[in-house]
Amino acid sequence: MSKLGDELVQSMAQALAHAQGKRTRSRVRKVEIRPDEIQNARKVLGLSQDQFADAFGVSASTLRKWEQGQRVPTGAAKTLLKIIEREPKAVVRALRVA
Fold first, then answer.
1. What are 27-77's pLDDT values in tens digits?
2. Domain HTH cro/C1-type spans what residues (predicted)?
3. How confident is the model at residue 93, as a pLDDT?
4. Average pLDDT over residues 82-98
5. Number of domains making up the chain
6. pTM of the predicted model as reported, rounded to 2 decimal places
7. 77, 37: one domain
8. Is the same domain home to 67 and 25?
9. Which domain holds residue 8?
10. 21 and 47 share a domain?
11. Are 96 and 69 in the same domain?
């Protein structure tokens, strides 16, 4: 696995431990993502709203509301969207979605 992949796996393990109430030495940073960043993440992968929603396990309606700013993604969805935006090729390799 690549260095980025190792870091992502370690980060997700730390996030899970934190969510389960376990004490960790990790720092939790607030991740923010704007509607235009969500739309850009999808477009970079070359997926329609329906395809993107299906690939990442959300409803197309929810994705549309995120992209229009009517709703805000939370938790792991927000983090995954930020990763998709910043490292789309790594996500495609890891999940084989496109």
1. 656 778 999 999 998 998 899 999 999 988 899 999 999 999 999 999 888
2. 38-91
3. 83
4. 81
5. 2
6. 0.65
7. yes
8. no
9. 1-30
10. no
11. yes
If you write DSSP's letter for every residue of 30-98 in order, what string do you get?
-----HHHHHHHHHHTT--HHHHHHHHT--HHHHHHHHHTSS---HHHHHHHHHHHH-HHHHHHHH---
**Based on the domain organization, do 97 and 61 belong to the same domain?**
yes
Between CA 95 and CA 24 the distance in angstroms is: 27
Burial class (CB in 10 A: 0-12, 13-18, 19+), 70: exposed
DSSP string, 2-27: -HHHHHHHHHHHHHHHHHTT---SPP
* Residues whose CB falls within 8 Å of the CB of residue 34, separated by 6 or more in sequence, listed in order: 69
Give Cβ neighbours of residue 40 (< 8 Å, ≥ 6 apart).
Answer: 85
